[in-house]
Amino acid sequence: QSNSTELFNKAQNILVGGVNSPVRAFKAVGSNPFFATSGQGATVTDADNNTYTDYVLSWGPLILGHAHPVVHDAVHTALDNGASFGIPTEAEITLGELIASHINFIEKVRLVNSGTEATMSAIRLARGVTKRDLVLKVEGCYHGHVDSLLVNAGSGPTTFGTPTSPGIPTSFVESTLTVPYNDLEAVREAFTERGHEISCMILEPVPGNMGVIVPEEGYLQGLRDITKEHGSLLIFDEVMSGFRIAMGGAEERYGVSPDLITLGKVIGGGLPVGAYGGSAEIMQYLSPEGPVYQAGTLSGNPLATAAGIATLTELAKPGVLQRIEAAQTRLGAGLGEIAKEAGIPIYQTQVGSMACMFFNENPVKNYQDATISNTERFTKYFHGMLERGHYFAPSQYEAGFTSIAHTDEIIDGTLEAAKEVFATF
Ligand code: PMP
Fold first, then answer.
1. Which residues contact 38 (CB under 8 A, 6 or more apart)?
2. Nearest Cα residue to atom 12 of ligand 1
3. CA distance linking residue 154 with residue 90, whole number of Å
4. What is the pLDDT of residues 327-372, one digit of tens each?
5. Known catalytic residue: 237?
6. Are 139 and 179 in contact (CB under 8 A)?
7. Which of 59, 265, 266, 367 for mutating ligand 1's site (highest number of atoms within 8 Å of CB)?
8. Is 275 a pocket residue for ligand 1 (Cβ < 6 Å)?
9. How much is the average pLDDT of 43-72?
10. pLDDT at 163
């Protein structure tokens, strides 16, 4: 019995399902997780001393790879000075300014501890500002485990969603409308019917939680126009795409500015951080300037801000983000050729260094399209790659990431393994 199996058995006695977050349980691929012991650059090592090339990277944050010296040293120095104060520190200003220096429309930010906290708070703020209750979300977009956003809604535009989780009051669910991604007509309909009640529309401008999906030409601009026309706020949830698809996020990549943005993952460099931001006019509704309450004992934590500042500073150096994207492009191009040779139909998507290979013969433009992917093939691919030392997210509906540590040599090693795996199909 492997050490990871032994640890997982032990974990199940004390942690629910053996994990502290469900996706880690490897349920979608019918196996058990490995237990990590260390990470270095592009690789993660498990309790049995297996080393994997890591395309999950803690689900996105480790854009500089594991244990990058600059991040390591920054956190070390911060720790020497004390782990938390609960009163302001200069590093909070520095991280806030860094974020705002890259994302044009941001004038003010609030730091929190997770992506979930950021989206929950942004929605409260949008409701407080507009004095409206409804939220419009996009089917298949994930915004953390916020009550009113855990709505599944397979049943088409403007109908009331159903909660994906028991424990969410019906009234919360009823205040969430859903539309399919890449469908402007559905958004127009929703606003025609209930526009005067809709506080905000929230979406991942580049979705990464139904696999990665690319916004069609004009989609994001269309959302900007419709929300503006109805006095609703547009919220881009860039917890995953922020500082990954561009330093300036979707605003830079697509030229569309939302009213609010939510961030997480990369801005914390692997430590627990989230943030939300927007114009001073909107953000001033937040306590202590305004009436909308939101607070946090550990918000702006010195270790987290140190890791975030180090990560964003390193990323902003010329060519760094382009190199990380090029690694993903090299991987995608190679996988495309290998699948073609093997005669296995796939549909590939990539924006920046986020990418997905759907085992799907048709284009994937929304959640509905994504769900008809061949998950049996995915599972076979996942296990084949893991056995050969290459770790991809244990679900068809997740994004893959590269980091600055993913060299051409490393990518080519993964492609060699993929060739072997596709040959077994
Ligand atoms: N929004 C998006 C787009 C995400 O990808 C995630 C996490 N995968 C979240 C919000 C929630 O962030 P967290 O897990 O830090 O609460």
1. 44, 45, 66, 67
2. 115
3. 46
4. 999 999 999 999 999 999 999 999 999 999 999 999 999 999 999 9
5. yes
6. yes
7. 265
8. no
9. 98
10. 58
